[in-house]
Amino acid sequence: MGRKSCFLLASFISMIGFVVLYFSKTATHLIIFESIEGVLFACQITICIMIITEYSSPRYRGIFLTMKSASLMWGVWVSNAIGTYFHWSNIAVVGCVTTAYIIITTLNWPESPYWLATRGRLNECRVAHHWLKGNSEESEKELQNLIERQTDLSRDEENDQENLKTLCTVIKRNTFYKPMLLSMLILTLYNSLGKMACTVYAIDIIQQFTGSESRAYTIMLVLDGVTIVGVYVGCAISRYARRRSFLIITSGFGIMFLYILSLFLYLVSSGIVENNVHMSLLLLLCYTVTVSGGPMIMSTSLVSELMPLSNRNMFAFLIGTFSNFAFATFIKIAPFLFTSYGFAATFFIYASTALCCLILIFIYLPETKDKTLLEIEQLHTNNEPKSNKQSELRKE
């Protein structure tokens, strides 16, 4: 269908979901709404990142991807604020207005130059590429390499469909399974850091610290605001910092604060130290800032940049499925861990899982900052020689 049409379809489905939410009267209606909005949630890690990586230039791609992650937390904060101070159906009103704006603006987009090139519509590809990225020398070189590479890819994919008809051969390619495994590691790292679990169960966690439900709602909104600030600080830093280093450093600090929080809660539960609400909230605040400013925004950015140009739809489908599975797993097991082992042990388990992922990422993840999608794909190719043009682009 193309990127634009697919995104429009998802937006219309999302609009239907928000209308259902607004008129919901029973739990069944809410389940129907959640099922419909599942399409939009899945788009976050599939079509959305494909659009951002293909529509933006390498120089600004990172900042756009991090801002996309920031917009997700804005939605969480606004929804929590509405649910705290107003009737929850107003969330649907905000959703409808936002989706209407998205639909109107999307109608004015061109189609993705990458998709057009793969379909052999080269004139439309040139027009769309110039509309999006201008006519600079750097843009023209990227367009030339794009047309050459995507034309070859379209032939390769046609041969795959005619001769192989299986997923196994595609998965065995370096340019497919290497970024797939790295992307799975990055997403597992992010989910195992527990930020979304802490967001979903914020009231229960904060109430455990403070012993007051009313204070828990206020502190939750404060932490949501801190998360947004941390995300935008991370966006600013990521504009200049190297992707790999930034992810590793911020994830390391996030894991450290998780371990410290786990140790503190263990000492409190054992009666070794006295419970200090301010200390607990301070550690939770430091953890929130480090995770929201780094892994939360960098995970989506790196996964989208690692996504190969060949078999891109298949990659998006598989990584999107894994992402939602990992998200659901860590969210659903959190209440069981809290109840069975306590908050201290749960934070320790999450931190240890994240540490294992971080070690593997430190060993295997390449740097992707300011590289074109073609150059990033070459990083995973052991046998394919780099062309002179690509070498010149990398030097520049």
UniProtKB/TrEMBL annotation:
The protein's location, in the record's own words, is:
Membrane
Print the keywords alphabetically. Membrane, Transmembrane, Transmembrane helix
Q: Which Pfam families match?
A: Sugar_tr
Could you give a GO molecular-function term held by this entry? transmembrane transporter activity
Q: Which residues cross the membrane?
A: 7-24, 30-52, 181-203, 215-234, 246-268, 280-303, 315-338, 344-365
This protein's membrane topology, according to the annotation, is: Multi-pass membrane protein
Q: Does the keyword Transmembrane helix apply?
A: yes
Query: Could you name the domain of life of the organism this protein comes from?
Result: Eukaryota
- CC per GO annotation: membrane
Which InterPro entries does its entry note? Answer: MFS_dom, MFS_sugar_transport-like, MFS_trans_sf, MFS_Trehalose_Transporter
Domain spans labelled Major facilitator superfamily (MFS) profile = 1-369
Return the protein name.
Facilitated trehalose transporter Tret1-2 homolog isoform X2
Q: What is the lineage of its organism?
A: Eukaryota, Metazoa, Ecdysozoa, Arthropoda, Hexapoda
Gene for this chain:
LOC106115317
